[in-house]
Every structure is written in C-alpha cells, then in structure tokens.
Amino acid sequence: MSSGRVSFLDQLQNREVTELGLRLKEASENVTINHTGIQQTAKRPIIKKVLETMTAGIDVSSLFGDVIKAASTKDLVQKKLAYMYISTQAEQNADLVILAINTFQNDLQDENPFVRGLALRTLCSMRLIDYVPYMLESLSHALIDSSAYVRKTALISCIKLFNLSPKHVLDAPLVDQLYNTLRDRDPEVVANCIVALNRIFLSEGGMTVDTNIAHYLLQRLHEFNEWHQCLVLDTLIRYKPSSEDEIFDIMNLLDDRLKHHNSGVQLTTVKIFIKLAEGIYDIQEDVYKRIKSPMLTLLTLTSPEIVYSCLEHIIVLMNQSHQLFREDYKYFYRRIKEPSFVTLKKLEVLEGIATKISSKEIINEISGYITGTDKVIAQKSIESIAKISFRIENVLSYSLEVFMKLLETGIDIIISSIITALEEFMNESPEKVGSLLSVLPSVWTSIDLSSQAGPAFLNLLTTVGYEISEAPYILESLIDDLESYPATSFRLQLLNSTVTLFLHRPAECRGMLAKLFKYSMEPYESLDIRERALFLYRLLQKDIKKAQEIFKHQRYASKKNGNNNFKTRDKHLTKFNTISLLYGKHSEQTLFEQTPGNFSKRNDDQFFSSPTHHISEFDELISLQSQNVVKDEFTLSSTVSIEAKKFKACWENFTESHEFEISLLDSSASLISLTLDDIESVFEENMMMIMASGSSGDYLKFFLYAQEINSNILMLCELKLNLNLKLAKINLRIGYEAYGIIHEDQKMNLSKYSEYFIQYLTRYVKELSNLVK
Amino acid sequence: MISQFFILSPQRGDTLIFRDYRHDTPRDVPDLLLDKLKTWQKNHGAELDPPPIFNVDGVNFLFTNIQGLYFVCTTKFNVSPFMIYELLGRIATLIKDFCGILSEECLRLNSSLVYELLDEIIDYGYVQTTLTDQLKSYVYEDPVPVKRENIIINSLAKLKAPGTNLGSSRNRPIVHSRDERSSKQNEVYIDMIEQLVASFASNGMTVRAEINGSIQIKSYLQGNPEIRLGLNSNIVLGRDKDISSDKYGIVFDDYKFHDSVDPTDFNEYRRMVIFPPEGETTIMNYRISSDVSLPFRIFPILLRDPRCPNRMDITIKIRADIPEDKFVSKCTLTVPLPRVTQSVSNENTDDSNEQSFQYDNRIKNIIWTINNLKGGTEQSIKVKITGATSFSAVAELEIGPISLEFDIPNYTCSNIQIRKLKVYEKNKSIPPQRWVRYFTISESYICRV
Fold it and tell me: Can you give the pLDDT at residue B306?
C-alpha cells in the first residue's frame, strides 16, 4: 500500500520535472512584462520553479543541459538562478560541465564586474578536481582584476580550491601573490586575503602575524566592516607585543571597539584585552573593570541568544575574579518575559557573586521566582539559595526562614526541592535544620519519593529528625508499601535510615527492621540491595557498639566538589568568544574540526551524558570510617587506551601490587556456560578495558586495565578465573603512567586508590554470577 | 565559517529558505534540528525553551526565533557565537528591509530575492557584507508585495505582542520597482525608544529601576546624506567618572554607537553626525540606572476574612506618575493567583469601556486592561477570589508578581529628547520628510505582592 503511494508520487514528480524541461526549451529569451509589472524573460519563472523543485528535494539533474543554455543571458536574475543551479548540480553531471565552460569563459571577460565575480564564484564552487587547473588560471587573472568585487571573490575561491586540492594551490605561485594582496587598498579584499592565508597555513596555526602586519592591520582596523573587524581582531589575538608600552598602545587603539554595536567585535576585543593583560599583573584588575561595563550593556539587549552567550562568558570572568560583578547583582535579576534558559544562567551568576552584604537581598529576590509556574526555574532557584547559604556565613537562618514559609504552600515540586536542599544544610548546621523538621510529618506526603528528594527525606528524618514522634510510623508505612518504591537509591537509603532510627529508638523499630531485612534479602532483589542488607544485618549482629559509632557519623563530608574551578578556569579563558564555551564543562576538543572533512563522527552521546561510573556513596562511607580520608571522586575513564608494549613496561615498573582471591561460591548457579565474550563485555561496560584474554588449562585468563580520571592512576590486572571451582585469582598492579620519581602525596594516593580499585573489581567479578541467569 | 543557513517554520516543519555554503554537513540538518526540538519539548515540556545552541553529530546549530520563524546557522567550527547570533538578527532585518515585511508568505513569494541576498552576505561560509548600499547594487530581483489580507493577519499578530507594533506604517521595502520611485521616497524616521526594567518589593520600595534606551533610524534617503542630531545637554557620561556635586543630569552608565555615527562631538556637545545606511539601523544604545522616575506605581492590598478561609479580597490600585498631558494608550496588568483558586469575581461597579477584566482559570491569572490612562490619575480594581479548598497561611506568596505591560507614546522616561535634527542633502529641491517619535515601553515591570 505504502510503496504504491511512493511510486505514484515519484511518477508525479518525474512528470513535473519533464514538463519543466519542455517549457525551458520552448521559452523565449525576450523580455516581457508580467502581471505585477515586473520586467523579466519568459525563462526566469521556469528556472525559479526548477530551483523550488530542487529545494523540495526532488531530483532535477536531468535538466542540467537546458539550464546551462539559460545561463548565457543578459537577464542577470536569470543568470544568477541558473548559476545557482549549476553549482549545486555540477557533481552529479560532471560530464556535462564541459558544456558550461564556454559560458564561464564569456562571463569571466564580461565588462560588468559583478558578472565576472559571479562566474568565478560559481566556477570555483564546483567540486570537480579535473577542472582545478582551469580554475587556477582564471583565479590568477581575477586576483589582479580592476574591480575589488572580483578580487575579493577570487580570494574566497582560493580557499575552495585549496580544500579541493591543496597540492595544486601550493604548487602554483599563488601564495606570494596572496601576501602582496594583504596590502590591497580595498579593506574587503584584505580581509578575505587574511581568511585565505589563515586557511592555507592552518597546520602552522594560521597566517604569521609579525609586528609589521599587526600594526598595519591595527591602523586600518576602522576601514573594515563589522564582520571583518571580528576576523581581523581574531587574527590579532595571535600577536605577542614586545614591550609593555606596545601593549598599552594597542589597548588604547582598541578601546573604542569595546563600545562597538556588534557584540562579536566587542567580545573579540575583550578577549584581546584579557590576553594582553595576562603578563602584567598590576593592570589585570583595571582591565577586567574596563570590559565589565560593555558586557553588562549586552545583557540589556533584547536578543536572548546574545544575552545567554554573554552570561556564559560572565560566569567565566566571575570565576576568575569574584569581586568583579558583586555590585552589579541587580543586572542578573529575572526579567518577566525572558526565556528560561536565560534565567537559569542568571541564577548561576547570582550564586557566584552574592556577598555578605547582598546575599539577603538576592535570596529575597530569588525566592520570588519559586512560586511561579515554571518548575525548572523553581527547582534551580531553591538550589541557588542553598548554594549561596553554603558559601556565605550567617545567611543560613534567613534562607531556612524562607524555606519554611515555602514549605507551607503545600506545592509538591517546591517541597521536594526544598527537602533535597535541607539535606545538604544538614551537614552544615544540624541544630538549625533540626529545629525546623517538626514540619516533616505534615508535608512528607507531598514529596515525590521517586526523585532524589526521596532518599534526602529519609536521611533528614532519621539523622537529624529522629526525635520526631511520628518518625517510626512514617518509616513503617513506607516499608509496608515497599513495591511502590523500586528505585535502588531510595531502597538503600531506607535500609540505612531504618537502621539509624533503630539505633536511636530500638523498641519502636525492631519489628519493622526485621521486616525490611527479610524483604531486602529476597533473591529477586538487586545485588546492591541484597549486599547492603546483608552487611547491615551482620554489622548489627556482630558489634552493635561499632554500628552506633558508624551511624552517628553518618553525616559524611558535604557533597561540594572542592575547588575544581581553579584548575579549569584558565582553560576557559582561552575558549572565550567561541561556541565551546557555551557547552560549558562538557566541551570536548573533538566537537570541532580544524579542517573540513567527512562528518561521520558520533560525539553526541558522549556529549550529552558522560558515561562514568561512580562507586556508591556507601562504599566510600566504609573507607571513610576505616581510613579517615576525605571523599574522593572515583571515576574511570571511558576512553583510555594503551598498547601492549606499554602495558608490559608498566606492569614491570609499578611497585604497588596486590594479590588476592575472590570466591563466587555463594552463587548457586553453575558458571560453566560463561564464555570469554560474556565476561569481557561485563568488564568493558564498566570501563575496564581488555588487553588480552584466553583460556589456559582450567583457567580463563584476562589482562585488564583501567584509568581513574581524577588522579590519572592506571590499574593493571591479571585475572584468572576457574569456572569449576568458582574462584578468581587476581594480581593487581597500580601506578602512574608516566614513571619517574613518585612524590610522597602520590604514594598516599596510590594506597588509597588501590583500595578503590579492589572494591570496584570485586564488585564486578561477583556480578559475573548474575550473567548465568 | 558557516556551513549552512536556513529558515524554518516550526509549525509545519517547513524549510522556507535553505542555503548550503560549504557542503560539509548533511543536507537533512533542518530535520535533525526539528527532531531535536521535538525531543526537547517531550522531555522538558513546552514551557521550557531549549537553549539556543545544539550539537548533533558534530554539527553545531545556532538559532534564534524571530517572529515565529527559526533562523538557523550550522557550523563545524569553533566560531564566535556572538558573531553568529548578530548575523542571524541582521539577516532578518535585511530581509525585512528588502522585502518590506518578514513573514512566511513573504519569504515564499520573495525566495529568489532572499537567495540573492544570502549569496552576497556570505560566500563559502565567510561573512562578506551586510551593508544595504552595497547589497543593493548586487541584488537585481524586485520585491513581490504580499497581498493585502495577509498584512492584516500579520499586524493582528503584532497587536498581540504589545511593544512590537512600532512603525507598522513603515513596512515597505527600501527598493521599489524601478518605475515606482518618487519623491515620496525621501523620508527618514527616527524613533527614540526607552524600555523600562523595574521591580517593586511588596512594601512598595523600588528594588530596581533601569532604562534601556535606543535610537532607531529608518532611512529611505538616497546616498547616505549627513544627519546632525543633538540630545539634551544635561546628559552625564559614565557613572564613575563624571559625577561631582555640582553636576546634575541624566547619567548614562554606558552607551554605544553604530558604526555609521561619528560621535566626535558627543563628549562635549552631546551631538552626533550620522550617515545612515538605507533601511533600519539602531544608531545608539544607552543604559541609565540612577534617578529613574518610574511612570507607574502599583498598590496591591490583600484582605482575608478569618471566618471564610477559602475567600480573599484583592484590591489593586495603579497610579500614572507622568505629566498630565500624556496618556498611556493601553496598560495591561497580569496577576497570578494561588493554585487552589476556583472562581474570581470583579466588584467594580463603574465598569466603563475604558477597562476590561479577564480571568483564565487554566493558568490562574487575572488580566486587567486599562485603555487611555491619563497622566496624574489613578484606577483601581477590587477582586474577590474563592478557592477550591481554603487558602494556606502563606497563599500570598503565590499571588503575584504583578506584571505590567504598557506603551506610552510621546514620552521618554529619562526626559531625553532630540533637540536638534538637520538633514544635509545635496541636490534636492524638496526637503526630506523627518519623523521623530518617542516611546516608553515596558520590558519587565513587576510588583511583588
């Protein structure tokens, strides 16, 4: 049925195209006046129709010959349309292009410079390598044409040819000619010449910018149009002035560009200012002040896209200098009609620039966004208030007051977000939060327990709010209705929380704890839940004192991620005024191309969700108790790749080694059916790469490696797995990839991370038995 | 380096204009973007706007929504986002200048004119020029006017968004059919527009007051004649530098000029010389944030009856603090109400033609519109609201912020005026027509309850 329809459509389209061809052949060249009073040839509307058909995605290549004939005409609109057709269709009709050469030849000699330019542009945009010599010849004439329009078109055509065949261009005496053209009297020609030279010398970082060229361009800067100013300034960023005086001269020359009406020019100038000030410490503060005002003015523009980009750049500047925007916080208040992506960014800025003096005012302003209809903004606003209260002393009580009021509104989404925020406050100031928790029993039914607010609520309830008389009843009702809450994170927290409450109020909780343990150890439960339940059960059984000690300290170090900003900020400054800055921390070099080429890369997935594995918080908790170390991120790289030779060298060099065995006996299933591939996929999915694998005797043998991102530590592992005995023998070595002298603190790291690696590996080796089901 | 430029009509997903400059990205990118936008809406709901930049398979999409149409650039290079967004806006203005208006219909009728423009604006992904004078000499196609009824539809759409219906009388192309040229062409429009950003706290205090001013010029004058324009002499430039006790005036925090302006005399005499390109240009922007006298005050009062917890009375008074000879043609107040609100009744007995009142139960908003509000007068409204359940103790948190939209003709909030305006045109016997207009409009004018 459907295929019938398609072929019917095809037929219809074919007929349409054939008809257009007939009409083209018949139409005369004479100029007539149509019904709207416009002079045109009879062919013009037909070619227009052809182009429309082409834009609609219908194949019109069969008309190539007819359209070429229509290109030689005095009607310029018709000529343009025909050329446009030729440039898009030339590749499919390479053998027919020869017919068009005559037309090109005539037009390149035409007395109208516009026709000469048009012909050259069209000729060089055909990607036909056979015609490159012909194109090059036309080019060399065009570069010395009397018309600037032709010259500037010729320069862009140079780039087209270079991309098509670099060798042809480099062999021709073109490059010298280009350097001469830099001194052309027409600014547009100069600008295009820079573009061409930048492209040809891309591998060397673009055109060389020496003192002569830099000052020559600076002198002529005002002649260029706004777009070319962007380009020229962008090229000037590469120039390194030789003295401080020169730096000040350049800054003076460029100062008025900060007030330019085009934000592209402004931001490129800002970037130059930052770059120039890099070496001179004394003037940095002044330079930042100087560039601030124009950026604030950009925020008042009505184009939300520019405002958005500007905010992203302000965030980078803010991380560089926290003082800079602190008095301008009102510019970052929401405007009623702005799109939410702008508001979200503004909130991010407010988080960073709030000071002791301004924070209450800012929190008060933000609290007004929470009751609105936009959920995402409500959530982000609550998060922002929390972040400000974390960073700045003495505003916590004020924020809590605000939150208390909002809790009373009874709006689900607000309550859930506030509970999540309160949990974070809990570590900071347990007494203050504790005094507020008496509201929990009346609001908890509005919390979305399947979101991250669920675990947060449980943690709050049992860690700080254990004295609330309703607490056991809330937990009991949850345990009785366990099937409604399948999320693992919620279930793990429920186990922890019930145990915590049990330790505080054993009499009331004994029954429900037993029930929960029983449910959680059912074989259909996930491995994580079963493991956790078993562990807690044994802990309570073995040493209740120890358990009390552990759970009293369960307010583990806050989740704030240290000062990562400091490491990355310089990198961000170099990204100034580029798209990659808008992608924030996720940006990867690989998203962009230095050179044009094929487009088969798939970076998308990686970009939108970084596939990293975090060891569960609980495991950290254990190590936190035993070793008293601060929480570290443990994230394995998904992209690590090392060669066999390197593996061997590292294996011999690494001094930190561990040998141990893991028994898989508690699994009832037989492992015999497992294949090498099955096991490999488990490891690979979890960022442990396979160097080699095979079977020797009773053993399956694997060489694995992995790299931890934050510390760059490499793990190498020899794993021998006996499927009959259900036993894994492991030889683990870890160390730094670049060997040499190891510092004291790195040594500390090594022993710490070896623990992590052992836990991590053990967890997934054990998981192998799950494969059999 | 721009790979492609295209214009999308999002409703039906049609690509109205599509130009591939570099052929280094797939041809079906408009569909990719549409997919991405649809997925975004599915995941985040329609109210959350997608960020104006996406990366799909290594292709970067930068786009902007102008009058319901998506203007999109794709690129594979790490270019300046500011430049691209500026360019998208400029292309839209140019299309408007050359075709008269910007609409789906107009783009369909004038597609080849638009392609002509696009070919001259960008060559192989490199921006060449956006100057109207230059482009005019490269573009040969004549604009096709959109039929009458469509203009009406278009201007209806504009009425819905107050503040944007400025100068609809000027919707005609800068290039006319060759035989249509006449002396009527010889006109220049200058608009001084001040957009207000203001917010009041619930106690009536002004939290912020800011003027974003711009001077826009639309010129039909031939050959870039010189225009001299002078502003008030009591303008003070720069907040930090110039302020001393003996200087009073209107303080510009920051300002900037278009390239076509020679501002040499501005520092001393507040004068500028303009060589306006044909078509629409913003020749100056400025920003004022100190001593702003706001044109409206809003006084909301909430009354609760302890005996009826599901009832509440809201009284809102608005006062126009502008000179008595000025008036506000239309002024709209929007008041969000608590989520449990069920019904609303308006108690105003003197309901004349000058006012209208609406309640939208779906989004729980009341909209109060006042026509012809005179300077120095007040209006008030009293509304009784009833909730499905009783209002919570903190229900007033959910009321507001009240947002105000207005449009005051012939008035600038800062008192800046064009004091001198002279057009120096060579070889013209008929002096050019000059039109100067002033507007104060709301950008974000809100009052917390």
Answer: 85
